Amino acid sequence: MQVTETLNEGLKRGYTIVLTAKELADKVDAKLEEAAPTIEMKGFRKGKVPKALLKKQFGQQVLGEAMQESIDGAMNEHFEKSGDRPAGQPDVKMTNDDWKEGDDVEVTLNYERLPDVPETDFSKVKLEKLTVKPADADIDEALANLAETAQNFESRKKGSKAKDGDQIVIDFLGKVDDVAFDGGQADDYPLVLGSNSFIPGFEEQLVGAKAGDDVVVNVDFPENYGAENLAGKAAVFECKVKDVKEPKAAELDDELAKKFGAESLDDLKKQIGERLEAEYAGAARMVMKRDLMDGLDKLVTFELPESLITAEANQIAHQLWHEENPDVQGHDHPEITPTDEHNKLAERRVRLGLLLAEVGQIQKIEVTDAEMQQAVMQQVQNYPGQEREFFEFIQKNQQMQQQLRAPIFEDKVVDYIVENAKTTTKEVTKEELQKAVEELDA
User: Per UniProt, which keywords does this protein have (predicted)?
Assistant: First the structure.
């Protein structure tokens, strides 16, 4: 087998591979000889079929297999000897289209190799880690919000008008074309005005009602309403208001704390403080990670595969187009051409991605089974009632596993770089941290 270099420009490589007719014939003979002991054919004992008959019966099939195995073997041997790692799927083509048995096989191999990533001194990277200590006012605000979610409703003074946010207790009967319909009747129904739990326009017409009032509500069912017999129809609801209740936040006491799984109010405050601290730490990490990536982008430069930049730019442009056109779900849309801005962002992403991958490989950073299991458990929460199906889907889908593994791997590499960078700590307020987070999207 002969391998001849035809292209060596930047990261682009091209080769011609020639597999001689004799090499191919020898490989076919070897494969037939290997399979012969297991082949049965009418008129012959197992393993005693003449070689000429075997070749006539299975020669073309074995020839194709031998050709593919030889080409694959030549490619693998080339990559092992050269040390090249292709940036994408190599382009392999057979050039002698008029090939017939007895001819040499000529194949072209073209690819872009991954670049050599230069060794980087991460101590040159300067980072600032923001820290925020939860203030008492922040804890009190979070506690008040919890109390709001655990609110009760108490009857207003007799004759009080219902306000948005109040709970009214009603009996109602719904009719379409003066005929009552299934599911359109209830007694003592507690409805929170402004909750948008009823048909659009229903709750607004009950604002201002008092206990004892009879209110006629006129609404139109939406065109896309679930029940076809009601979709788009005008309806009349005869409502009897039986009570008007105002919301009352729960008392901030030990009983409230126990509702949220804490032993006491002080314990609940402590838990809230820890949760806020974790939220602030997560936001601060986002800011520091962006600063790290900006620093690495300026510090490290090397040649990039054009194919990876093109693919990344197309993906960025496609994603942004769909964000701007959310009504288009499929791919039936005009061709999307990446802009210079998309290409610039793609270059950054490809460069940083290759750098992090190289650091991870050199430092032997791996995602453990426990970390993958935790990632899967977090995802499965989005599929209540379908946990088993989701687990089976993950087990069978290598691409999905990689999507879960990639951010974990990246975070572990980032942690390694941060440990070796020059990091200072700065205490800031919650507002200052929030501003820094907002500037990430600016």
Answer: Cell cycle, Cell division, Chaperone, Cytoplasm, Isomerase, Rotamase
